[in-house]
Specification:
It is a single chain. By secondary structure, the protein is mainly α. A two-stranded parallel ribbon has the order 1-2. Helix 1 packs parallel to helix 2, helix 3 crosses helix 5 and helix 4 packs across helix 5. It folds into two domains: 62 residues, Ribonuclease H-like superfamily/Ribonuclease H (Nucleotidyltransferase, domain 5); 58 residues, 2-Layer Sandwich (Nucleotidyltransferase, domain 5), CATH 3.30.420.10. The chain is globular. The protein has five helices and two strands, in the order H-E-H-E-H-H-H. Helix 2 links the parallel strand 1 and strand 2.
Length: 129
Amino acid sequence: MIKSTATYSFPDRLKEIHDGVLEVIDCYQPGLAAVEDIFFAKNASSALKLGQARGAILMALLNKHLMVREFTAKQVKQAVAGYGQASKAQVQHMVRLLLNLSASPSEDAADGLAIALCLTNHLRDELLL
């Protein structure tokens, strides 16, 4: 998991995120990646910062020549919970069930795993077409 250091300036935290993604890519050598598409937030400042962090992540993925798929939150929730308006708790529960985990993952881990499951579903569907 990539965690940024709260005491760093925001630009330094973006670099930390970017470099952390590069380390994960180098360690696991994935062939493709999935990210959550832009969403609307209640707080404009938070939405702007999340967009910038997403940009840092996308640049790391693209600089490593990974194919990137984007999914909306609704698509991810539909893929794992069967309902595009599912709550965070429902997503956590379904990720635990789908992956046969002994305990529910944290919200952030569940979100990441749900995006991976969504990608897997979409790739399977593409192969069946």
